[in-house]
Amino acid sequence: MSSSHIKVKAIVTSPTNSSRQGYKFKYEEGRRYHADEDVSYILPNDDDEADRVHQQHWILKYALQCNYHAPVTKMLEDGIVVLDSGCGPATWTFEMGETYPRSAFHGVDASCVFPEDIKPANVELVIGNIAKHIPYPDNTFDYIHQRLLFLGLTHDDWENTLKELLRILKPGGYLELVEPDLQELHNVGPLLSKLQGTLSDILISKGMPTKVHDQFEELLDKAGFENYVMKMTPLKLNHTNKAGDLLWEDYSHGCINIRSVLAKSNTDWESPEVFAAFLEASGNEAKKYKTCINYYACYAQKPLE
Ligand SMILES: C[S@@+](CC[C@H](N)C(=O)[O-])C[C@H]1O[C@@H](n2cnc3c(N)ncnc32)[C@H](O)[C@@H]1O
Questions:
Q1: Which of 68, 106, 196, 232 is deepest in the core (most CB within 10 A)?
Q2: Is the pLDDT of residue 8 over 90?
Q3: Would you call 211 exposed, middle or buried from its count of C-beta atoms within 10 A (0-12, 13-18, 19+)?
């Protein structure tokens, strides 16, 4: 998908949508990044990363055996209004739109990495910084889904985002948050410990939580949500079955896409070849140790009053 082919439409329900924001890019080592100083996200936003995130959706669906955890199936079948917050290339949004044709789906992302021209009729996509202002009126959505923002939001951003999500959720509506624990892998060996330690140091230096799922209950409570439920699923990394192989494919691709950031803390990794060899050894280590990544999904509701 080429950025020059992306058109962003204004949508009636979002009068404050500032679509031009998505067109500010910067380039480093041949990779394209957003250039919005208010957005802390550290991964690139080019085609390779969009393809990775697209594929990651199918891998997670296969490994988790579901697309969502909140008890919203009947509501989705009957017809509700849903937001995918930080939707990326909008693979979840599109698939859900096709699965539940009576519901209306909206996606918001800081970068215009999503396709706009070809999409299900019940899907609308908009550019916005979820930590500043989500361009929808109060009490718009019945269900909000947000997945994999742990490399994008500082402590303050999480607080602001949850306030915004509460504002645009209808009373009684559900918010679902899904994040992996990449700081503490289960059955981890020394190589992956080193990698995760470096990533954690970077997150700390940027004011981002390293284990945001540990703070979900407190953050949601502080923002004003209630009826909090948490579920954890350990996902196999490079062992046992196809899901394990696929998760490693995604994990290692994500590491390659974040290599230049990791190299700021570990200069050995300035060389893509050195890093590739390190990753290969890490993959073998994960297979031997039977390493798992714990995925956390929680949901909570906006109070009725
Ligand atoms: C790893 S992708 C996940 C995409 C999607 N949620 C999924 O699970 O397939 C994270 C996305 O969050 C977006 N993002 C990061 N910080 C953001 C912010 N402050 N406001 C809106 N989107 C943001 C990025 O642009 C990126 O597309």
A1: 106
A2: no
A3: middle
Cβ–ligand 1 distance for 113 under 6 Å, the answer yes
The CATH number given to 3-301 is 3.40.50.150
Which residue ranges make up each domain of the chain?
A: 3-301
Report pLDDT for 23: 64
Q: Is the CB of 107 under 6 A from ligand 1?
A: no
**Cβ neighbours of residue 59 under 8 Å, at least 6 residues apart?**
243, 246, 247, 249, 250
Residue nearest to atom 12 of ligand 1 (CA): 86
Q: From residue 290, how far is each of 56, 152, 172, 181, 280 by CA, in Å?
A: 21, 29, 41, 16, 15
Is the C-beta atom of 297 inside 6 A of ligand 1? no
Residue 55 DSSP label: H
80-137 pLDDT tens trace: 999 999 999 999 999 999 999 999 999 999 998 888 788 999 999 999 999 999 999 9
